[in-house]
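QA checklist item 7 of 12: single-chain prediction sanity check.
[x] sequence parsed
[x] length recorded as 141
[x] structure emitted
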Amino acid sequence: MEPSATELQELYNAFGYILTEERAILDAPPTHIDLDAFRSYLERLGFDTTDDPQPDAVHDLRNRDVVVEVGGELRATLYGVLAFGRDPQRYARTRDFRIECVAYAGVDRAAEVLQVASAAGRVDEQVDRATGWFLGLGRFE
């Protein structure tokens, strides 16, 4: 039986493993990063990603802490996976990194659950999906 996400985080904390954004996800090679999503982000920051010469993609990913070297091999960081990963929840350490949306019949979590949704994907996709779900409820207080 696998531990729950909460139990797993408690174990990590107890044994000194804290997952921060610069920590490498060891089973996430640079090929798991969506370069189109990364370039789109750079363009939103005002960088022109079409003019030559452009830095090598891997060099650019390293400079922005999207990937780091671990044991002579490049691995995506938690930041890289959550911000630009092709499938951020595919890894054991990130499978529960999602927004859970719940609508209750009352004013607190003890009330009856009316609707539940899970917003997975990259962080921007999660926020968009959760916002869309919330707006779809049609009720504001």
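[x] summary fact logged: The longest strand covers residues 113-119.
[ ] second reviewer sign-off
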